[in-house]
Amino acid sequence: MDMNAMESIYAGGMLGSALGDAVGECAFRFPDEESLQGHLEGTGLLRYTDDTAMALGLAECLLQLGDIDQQELGRIFMTNYEREPWRGYGPGPPAVFSRARYGGMSFTAAARMLFDGKGSLGNGAAMRIVALGLFFRHSTILYEKARYSAEVTHCHPVGIDGAAIQAIAVSQAAILDPEDEFPALPFIEKLVDAARTDIIREKMTALKTLLRENASPSEAAGILGRSVAVHESMPFAVFSYVKNHRSYEDTIHCAVLHGGDRDTLGAMAGALSGDYLGAGGLPGDWLVKLENRNYIANLACHLAGTAHAEE
Question: How far apart are CA 97 and CA 235, in angstroms?
């Protein structure tokens, strides 16, 4: 497919996120670089997880409506889940979908019931955010758009904040020129300033310190975290991208080879690296094995055309 510059950014972000998700899923079984690379060379298919399934649902909603409607987004998520429940969903989204379908509740009301009424602070809203970060990259209310999309399944303030900061990181990466010197510390400072919860702000501040001190990935992983909680995974995904911004492969290796929630770390880091480098920066020998890559690329290009027309 021939792409213009904007289509390449969108396709790079969405394909990069899906590819990072799929490679990260492989890393659960092949947890070191040598065995992972051997598997990637030998396998015929790279299959993505719920991370990408939900990212596609968000993109489909944006393409359909040109905006976020929480009930419609929840319906799309639920439909996609019911078609492919084997994608590896955690317990939260299915519980939300069940309450919405059988309990007569809105998706956001169902999401607020999770975890004894506190809502989820997991990384599920951040892992799927790439299309929204690109679509609203010039909007002054990007944070609010990210909040609307998160609340369908993640109502905890930290879950919302983590998703919004990931969306802002995506929007920033999309407007940088890979030919220019990478503005690592200013990039992170914008994320620190945008954070609205203490824990996300503290983690992004720690990330800035780690970059300034040229910390190793292992040290950063230990300090920033790699769990399913968004404040313990999204910061390390951002670190992996910033530390390795010249190379998509190095970004993904950093994100997925230090344990923890490997597929989601790969999805978040891959979204940033992919939209920064563009579709041409993705490794072709990996990409050709990604399932549904043509659908993802076409969806990204259509979305890019819609967004471009509205700017």
Answer: 28
How far does Cα 284 stand from its chain's mean position? 21
Range list of H helices, the chain: 5-27, 33-42, 50-65, 70-83, 92-102, 107-112, 114-117, 124-127, 130-135, 142-150, 157-175, 184-194, 198-212, 217-224, 234-243, 248-256, 262-277, 284-287, 293-310
Distance CA 182, CA 164 (A): 22
Predicted confidence (pLDDT) per residue in 124-180, tens digit:
999 999 999 999 999 999 999 999 999 999 999 999 999 999 999 999 999 999 999
Domain limits of the chain? 5-310
5-310 placed in CATH 1.10.390.10: no
Model confidence, pTM: 0.97
Amino acid sitting at position 178: P
Look up residue 52 and give its two tokens: 């990408």
Question: For residue 309, what pLDDT is reported?
Answer: 40
